[in-house]
């Protein structure tokens, strides 16, 4: 009777059975899943560090409050510190448009799939919703968003609001789960509404209705014009020189 040859585990590239620990067996049967933490067990997250200047209008520049640049960071959720070294600190990021009601209930987190499922695409026959510099590269964990412009308003989606979202670009940090970022929800209005937009801060040469609480062609606006107050500069001059006269203008309304 011919003996059955025994398999030589080393000949076929396998570790000897005697050296297979329980953890080693599990690693062979179930390969390690994609990590959800960064190096050394850190939980890494992206974040917008600048609030947007609102309201936003189609065709207008997306910028931070008072015209500031919009900064984004990659930080360690455990320490609150910016991740300033390692491959993650120089990753490239994609800027996307999200539905305004994304993650309203659960502020603790979401999966990558949930985030992607709430990305808003352009309407049929329309241009991409957001145009401009749609990527930003981190430098030592910090990035600055470039020129961005909305081409469509937000009135046609369920929540009637958008959010800006930020995610790691394809090809970067693929074995590390880095949580995406989102802004607060906001409306994007048709550019025609910009004709009535307030200025923050207003300039001296702005018409007086650019100030808060004074509506264009409203009763305050008309009364001020009749009193010779047509610009912000006129208004401020009267505040300093004759505040009583200014009070009387409003008192007559």
From TrEMBL:
Residues 204-250 form the Calmodulin binding protein central domain. InterPro entries: Calmod_bind_M, Calmodulin_bind_N, CBP60. One of its GO terms (molecular function) is calmodulin binding. Residues 44-191 form the Calmodulin binding protein-like N-terminal domain. PANTHER family: OS02G0177800 PROTEIN. This is Calmodulin-binding protein 60 C. It comes from Zea mays.
């Amino acid at each position: 009777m011919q003996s059955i040859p025994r398999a030589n585990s080393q000949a076929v590239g396998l570790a000897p059975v005697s050296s297979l620990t329980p953890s080693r067996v599990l690693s062979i049967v179930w390969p390690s899943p994609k990590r959800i933490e960064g190096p050394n067990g850190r939980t890494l997250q992206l974040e917008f560090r600048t609030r947007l200047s609102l309201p936003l209008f189609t065709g207008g520049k997306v910028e931070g409050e008072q015209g500031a640049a919009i900064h984004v960071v990659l930080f360690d959720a455990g320490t609150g510190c910016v991740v300033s070294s390692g491959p993650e600190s120089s990753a490239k990021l994609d800027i996307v448009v999200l539905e305004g009601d994304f993650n309203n209930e659960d502020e603790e987190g979401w999966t990558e799939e949930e985030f992607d499922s709430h990305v808003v695409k352009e309407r049929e026959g329309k241009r991409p919703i957001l145009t401009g510099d749609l990527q930003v590269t981190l430098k030592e964990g910090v990035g600055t968003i470039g020129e961005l412009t909305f081409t469509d308003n937000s009135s046609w989606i369920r929540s009637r609001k958008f959010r800006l979202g930020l995610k790691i670009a394809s090809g970067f940090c693929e074995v590390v789960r880095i949580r995406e970022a989102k802004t607060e929800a906001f409306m994007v209005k048709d550019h025609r509404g910009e004709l009535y937009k307030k200025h923050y801060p207003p300039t001296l040469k702005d018409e007086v209705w650019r100030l808060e609480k004074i509506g264009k062609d409203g009763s305050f606006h008309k009364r001020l014009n009749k009193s010779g107050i047509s610009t912000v500069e006129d208004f401020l001059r009267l505040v300093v020189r004759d505040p009583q006269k200014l009070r009387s203008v409003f008192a007559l309304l």
